[in-house]
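re: ur question from yesterday

yeah so i grabbed the chain u mentioned. its 142 aa long if i counted rite. heres the sequnce exactly as i have it in my notes:
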Amino acid sequence: MKFRDYHQQQTAELELAPMIDVVFLLLIFFIVTWQFARFERDMDVSVPAAEQVDDGPRQIGEIIVNVRKSGDVFINGAQVSDDEMLARFRLISSAYPDQAVILRGDAEATYQSIIDVLDVIKEAGIWNVAFATARPETPPRK
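ran it thru and got these structure tokens back, copy pasting raw so excuse formatting
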């Protein structure tokens, strides 16, 4: 005689569609955040150290301007001349009057090259400029 087992549960199946959706959303998130962060990580620019570093909230759509030790200027990873920089910033300031610009000058760059870039930014009509600095490396405690 065969008895039915009423206490037997059905096996649960693994739903793959929601898991694939989550994986793709995470992938998109990391690609987008990497894309914004890579312009600020120019390896040829070592920003000066400052004790009072403001790690406040960042603005969306910030433009990163890197000034290397040699005086070369890079906007979001592309090298530009002063005329190209002025044309870009005028176009941007006409569309977005409150555009934020982060100026990352190399610690060994000449003061004049930083001021030249700042003059071009000012001439284009952009007023929201921040200077990037890094926290000083603390000496090891003995």
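noticed a couple things. Residues 56 and 130 are 12 Å apart (CA to CA). also The radius of gyration is 25 Å.
anyway ttyl
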